[in-house]
Structures are given as structure tokens and as C-alpha cells.
Amino acid sequence: MCGVFGISGDNNKEVGRLTYLGLYALQHRGEESAGIVVFDKKRVKHYEGMGLVNEVFDEKVIKSLSGEVAVGHVRYSTTGGSVAKNIQPFLVTHKKDYIAVAHNGNLTNASTLRDSMEEKGSIFQTSMDSEIITHLLTSCDQREIEERVVSSLLKLEGAYSLVLMFNDVLVGARDPYGFKPLCLGKLGDTYILCSETCALDLIQAEYVRDIERGEVVFIHKGKLQSIKPFPKKQEAKCIFEYIYFARPDSNIFGRNVYLVRKTLGKQLADECPVDCDFVMPIPDSGNYAAVGFAQESNLPLEVGMVRNHYV
User: Fold this and answer.
1) Are 126 and 79 in contact (CB under 8 A)?
2) Same domain, 143 and 37
3) Burial level of 227, CB count in 10 A (0-12/13-18/19+)?
4) What is the Cα Rg of the chain in Å?
5) How far is residue 201's CA from residue 92's CA, in Å, rounded to a whole number?
6) 267 and 218 in one domain?
7) CATH no. for residue 62?
């Protein structure tokens, strides 16, 4: 599980600060490391570190991250260890192009792809499956960004919600199954891509819509292009987004997380009633299911366990 954030705004030089705030809102999706890459007038700015967002970025760093396009990432390691070399966004330079990759998900054919690439001479700097995406993007024969992205993504299997940066072009993509969430927002004429709507709320941006499963969007100089190049697959959303990963005030997959958790609690009470004195949640994600269970069972809701958020 990770959190991704991207922003494209020619007339908004505060892309670094807005990305910082977006990552701050998505902190629950990854507490191991954080990074931001900014493209600014044919040059790139990159800052990253291990730890929480507010530990990695101070005011001096945030002020330095002005530009046109930014991509950010908070990491919870699933593939590859929790070490500095695995911090995202992963940034490479290829034929004078700056390419940054921020990935949420798991690639099920990562080992096969990596073995094949290494046999052909590719050198990997990290142990992340996400680095495979950069190798695909830089090794394909196509020259246009749209063709390179589609050609690369067609080789991937598994779950991915991606925010990519090609110089001043911002790209967002979801796998054909729609495992992980990714939404589109707008702040004035500035487009935003992020894992959850809570990131839009913090920067007072407008939620536009979810990026659809199998959809790829290209954002450049205030214009958005959408394509759906993948064969249709059966929808398969990650249920743990609703149960555990997502923040309760977010809307993902078209539904509010708090209301889904509360409804699950009510359904549990209907399917598995118990003879008890009260309902006690295990914080934090269990809080809202417990509310639904207690209401449906006509039982009191009591607090018997408190989580310390600062240890």
C-alpha cells in the first residue's frame, strides 16, 4: 500500500507545496518514506527521505520545489525493503527526458520481467517492482509518450495505480481490473491526480471523478487526454481499501469509506449476532464497523482500547 499524488499547473508554481500537503493527507497510506519530484523549465528538482512527510520536508525544502509539474509518493513497502534506495518517486534521465514513477500496487509478473531485462543487460538500482516500469518506458521502440506508456503498461500484470511524469507531462493510469483507487481533481485550472479524495479536501480542490479502470490520462498545459487501450477485464477492487487502508473521510470506488465500514458492521450484526453486553471497537479502522454493529444490535458502544498515535 502506498499513496500517490501528481499535479500539473502552468500557472501555479506552488506545485511542490501542494504536493507536500497532498502527501500529508495521504500519510496513512505509507509512513516509511516520502519523496517529491518537480519539473521546472527543462530542469528537475528532487527531494526524498526516510520517515514521515513532515520529517522529510521542511519549509526551506518546500519553497525550493516550485515548478510546473510535480509527482509525490508515500511508501509502505510490499515489494522491496524499507531502505533509502527504494524511496519513490523513482526518477531516471533518458535521452534528455526526465521520467518519474510513483506506483501504488503490486506487479505479479515482476520477477519474470526483471529476469528477462537483466538477461538483456538492464541494471537495476532498487529491489522494487516499480523500477521495472521505468525500464519498460525507456526501452520500448515507440517515441511518442502516449505510445510508450501504453506499450509498457500492456506488459504489466497485477495491480497498479500510477502517477508518472514525462518532463512537463503528467500521466495517470489504473490497471484494467481497477484494484487500487486513483482520482482526478482540479484546483482552478490545475489538474490533480491522487490516491484518495482526502488529499483534494486538504488543498481545497474539487473532486472531478475517479480514473476508470483501464484508463490512462495525459495532462499537459491545462489539457487532459483520456484513452482506454486495454482489453476489458472483470472488475476486482481491493476490499482492504474499504476495510483498512483508506481514510474514513475519503470517497473511493464511488462510495464513502466511513459509510461502507458502518454498513459492513450492520451486515455483520445481521449475519452473526452475538449475546453480549456492549460493542467495543479495535482502533482505528474498526471504529466505524463497530458503530454499525452496535446500532443494528441495539447495544451500547463502549471504548475499551485507546491507540496512542504518537508512539
Assistant:
1) no
2) yes
3) middle
4) 20
5) 31
6) no
7) 3.60.20.10
